[in-house]
Amino acid sequence: MRDWRHVRTDRLRLDRPVQDDLADLHRIHADPDSWAHFPQGRHLDLDRTRQTLSQSEVDWARGLGYWSVRDSAAGPVVGMAGCTVAGEEPWWNLYYRFDSSVRGRGYAAEAAGAALEAARDVAPDRPVLAYLLEINVASRRTAEKVGLSLVWSGPDAGNDDPDAVRLVYLDREPDDAIRAALDVRFTPRPTV
Fold it and tell me: Where is the N-acetyltransferase domain (predicted)?
């Protein structure tokens, strides 16, 4: 297995996040434009971004996590991307979020491609999943560009917008166990 803490693609530097990345990561995650399709996900305070950075340390200790993304050696962090396993989920979660100043350059697909390669190296039997909102066309294009296929759609449980539709993409055809896990994770439950 390869050491995935530091990866170079054609245009990007993907590195395990460090504390010095906190301000840049917060700027990206606090930007309302970055959360236009899911406003409730926005980081309203620095502590939330600190939690993200702390979780990253846990994820990397388990073998793989999200990277801080730069497009130059001395430049600021322009995004966060990669794969992690959330809790006990039977899949890798593919994530990509970029500063609005660099969107439209194909960075998300480039980082996502590296993340897929890393996940398949670390645990090839674990599928790679991306979940996103139907209205986020750019994120859908990225998932499809790196070879993921739509395997589930339905109401987005817990979303402030009752009309929101969640889409789930996977890098392979789901088996029965993965389908059951998808239904448990993404199907809204009635409130009592």
Answer: 10-172
Helix (H) or strand (E) holding 92, with range, is: strand 92-98
**How far apart are alpha carbons 95 and 56 in whole angstroms?**
12
**End-to-end CA gap in the chain:** 47
pLDDT by residue (tens digit) across 77-88? Answer: 999 999 999 888
Give the domain range for residue 114. Answer: 6-186
- For the chain, the domain total comes to 1
List the CATH number of the domain containing 19.
Answer: 3.40.630.30
Tokens representing 91 are 């899949």
CB 52 within 8 A of CB 25: yes
pTM, two decimal places: 0.92
Evaluate whether 186 touches 131 at the Cβ level (below 8 Å): yes
